[in-house]
Amino acid sequence: MDQLMAIRAFARVVEAGNFTRAADSLDMPNATLSKLVQELEAHLGVRLLQRTTRRVTVTPEGRDYYEKSGRLVRDLEDIDASLNAARGNPRGQLRIDVGGSTACDVLIPALPDFLARYPDIRIDLGVSDRSVDLIGDSVDCVIRGGPLDNSSLVARHIGQARLITCATPAYLKLFGVPAYPEELKNGHRLVSFLSPQNGRAFPFRFERKGEKTEIKVEHRVGVNESNAHLAAGLAGLGIIQTFTYAAGPALARGELVEILEKWRPAPYPFHVVYPNNRHVTHRLRVFIDWLMEYFPEKVGAAGKKNS
């Protein structure tokens, strides 16, 4: 038995919550993973996992072994990482999850630079505005905007983006240009961004000289994906509120016009988030460092360009 591999297999089952997702994350057959865990249990003479047809639960002995063996695995990974760092050559796979417009307008255009710096790192990019289970889905980190409410995760602030309110020239010619946020309630058509988690519409937010206003009216169209949300605005379906980095090219081409400029809401924070119980590998560390260097410049530049 390869005990180290068996320990890693067992740890992934604990973190993923089932054998199938754990096997997928380790890129091995389910049967191989199951055999490794069985061999580890036989070697230790204790039951680590309680299996049923529907779920896998960790026994008290399994929880204790997971915590103690996890420290050993992290120590070994630290040794490997220090050697890789000495050679300046981080390697391996990174699984990253990011929202749609942030992926298309910010991250993907910059990835050639990152991969040129670190040619031995492979990236699997999940693009979705929905929240992911970092542990269960075996994701190394996510890039997300907005307030954070999960204390079990580590978050590094990487920058902030500007939200702007805009519409097409044709829409504004037909419905008029609102001078104040409250005028959005008077016959204007709004295209709301819907929460991918619960389907609720985010309110239109405004701020001027410390005065904050939220406009909550029934929307004409609601969209729960950021690129499609921008497309709805470009189609003339109504007024949208989106990020400057997403709308910037359309604004420059005259396809969208910013309105209510004096009422721009406060900057929107962005974070890179990762589990606090998972070892930060050298490849993840260099990605986070690179992201903190690149993201504020890209997003900040977009905000200045259109301010």
> What's the alpha carbon Rg, rounded to whole Å?
24 Å
The main pleated sheet reads as: 5 strands, mixed
Distance between the termini: 62 Å
Alpha-beta classification: alpha/beta
Shape: elongated
Summarize the structure in words.
The protein is α/β, with parallel strands linked by helices. It has 3 domains: 3-86, Arc Repressor Mutant, subunit A; 91-158 and 270-305, D-Maltodextrin-Binding Protein, domain 2, CATH 3.40.190.10; 163-263, 3-Layer(aba) Sandwich (D-Maltodextrin-Binding Protein, domain 2). It is built from 9 helices and 14 strands. The strands form 5 sheets. It has a 5-stranded mixed β-sheet with strand order 4-3-5-14-6. Strands 12-7-13 form a 3-stranded antiparallel β-sheet. A two-stranded antiparallel ribbon has the order 1-2. Helix 5 (100-117) links the parallel strand 3 and strand 4 (121-127). It is elongated, with a radius of gyration of 24 Å.
List the helices and strands and how they pair.
Elements: H1 3-16, H2 19-26, H3 30-44, E1 49-51, E2 56-58, H4 60-87, E3 92-98, H5 100-117, E4 121-127, E5 141-145, E6 153-161, E7 163-167, H6 169-175, E8 191-193, E9 204-208, E10 211-215, E11 221-223, H7 226-234, E12 240-243, H8 244-253, E13 257-259, E14 268-275, H9 282-305
Parallel strand pairs: 3-4, 3-5, 8-11
Antiparallel strand pairs: 1-2, 5-14, 6-14, 7-12, 7-13, 9-10
Helix pairs in contact: 1-2, 1-3, 1-4, 2-3, 5-9
